[in-house]
Amino acid sequence: MKLHEYQAKGFLREFGIPVPEGEVAATPEEARKIAARIGCPVMVKAQVLVGGRGKAGGVKMAKDPEEAMARARDIIGMKIKGIEVQRVLVARAVDIQSEYYVSLTVDRSARAVQCIASASGGMEIEEVAVKEPEKIVRFPLDPEAGLVRAKHFDALARAFPSPDVAVQAWSILEGMWNLFGAKDCSLVEINPCALVPGGRLVAADAKVIFDDSALYKHPELEALRSPEEYGADELEARANGLSYVSLDGTIGCIVNGAGLSMATMDLIKYFGASPANFLDVGGSSNPEKVLSALRIILRKGHIRAVLINIFGGITRCDDIARGILMAREKLGIPVPLVIRLIGTNEAEGRKLLSAAGIEAYDDLTEAVKAVVARAGKAST
Length: 380
Ligand code: GDP
Ligand code: MN
Known about the structure:
alpha+beta; four-stranded antiparallel sheet
């Protein structure tokens, strides 16, 4: 579960990290009042759950409350990466002398929390990793032993210009570590961590993501959930018991099992096309699930073909076949449909489909090649 910057900064404050004063506004008039109260200049910042707001024109400085109101009017309602801005954070602007990066994430393969720090803040870290990999410092933190000054301070200090600044970075990292553990985060990121006059470090931007699998331990966090984190299709999928993630490609995928879904997406990529979604219809046999899955996928405008890949175990192929026939009747499927069907009740499933003039593959590679060919390999 992702937090907006203003929410994330609230947690940073709670854990003792210096953050410029600020408040969230839903209207230009509110933005004006906040700017007048906290003092100018201020930054007016789009609150959307995506990065790169600055580049998209969603972060603007204002020298007085009237200008803050004007900037809020520009930013509220604009779309950033397809998401409409509903609120802005009005925060005291700081005079940034240099920008640093600090984050904590989970490194599953190392069974550790990974700390990443860099002297090239401001940019997205993925970009730094490509352009200036030598500027990135990273070290694992044992989840039980945690941050140990004798062990980790020198590594962190390499990203900062002087021991004095590094000492402040250390105290910020301690706050981040405490937050990370206390709320079961999967990401705590400060970018930029800004060096301001007087040699002080402050968190000028923050991202916090809670691990959904641990939210049951923190019921109070549920209230912070933003509906816009999920698209309408993702919300509908969840309501229908489907595990679904929307992606940008052109080939809709309906698969049973998360592992098989991943393998299917990999194969689609391997043959030069891109999946439009991840979708796991799960283990249970319910023709209705195929119907809802197709309805959700087909609503996306750019679908060129759909692949249904079923390896029947608990899922029964005849139920899937019934779902496909029902969907064909109710939805009318406007794009090519390629089916791969093997496993439990395969013969019955095939019989149902072929009676309706549909043939199913049994080999996954062949099915993926066919769906990519029929989608026209046009995706990127
Ligand atoms: P992002 O683009 O979504 O990561 O949004 P940020 O909050 O990181 O803002 C983007 C950029 O705006 C930062 O890298 C800074 O260069 C600039 N910025 C943000 N806050 C301030 C501020 O208080 N003062 C100044 N001078 N620049 C800021
Ligand atoms: Mn940022």
